[in-house]
Amino acid sequence: MVKRGKIDIIKDILIVIRDNNNHIKSTPLLRKSNLSSERFSTYLQDLLNKNFVKDSHDQKGERFLSLTDKGFRFIEKYKTIIEFIDEFEL
Question: Which residues of the chain register pLDDT less than 70?
Fold first, then answer.
């Protein structure tokens, strides 16, 4: 089994958020990210600090995560890079 690198983990987390109507609580995101809670917290904090993800609260005060424009752009650029690699069989 191949371990995921940092870029793949970031992409996976962002795609989970996007695929959940760009609105997900942190606990389901943790489960779907397939990371330990410690590693997940580190990645989530990094994504928040780099403005890929934003933190918001609903009227009940529950915390939700969603992608920023930068997060959506990351997914698109990642897709472009993978297509390039596949096209040239690298």
Answer: none
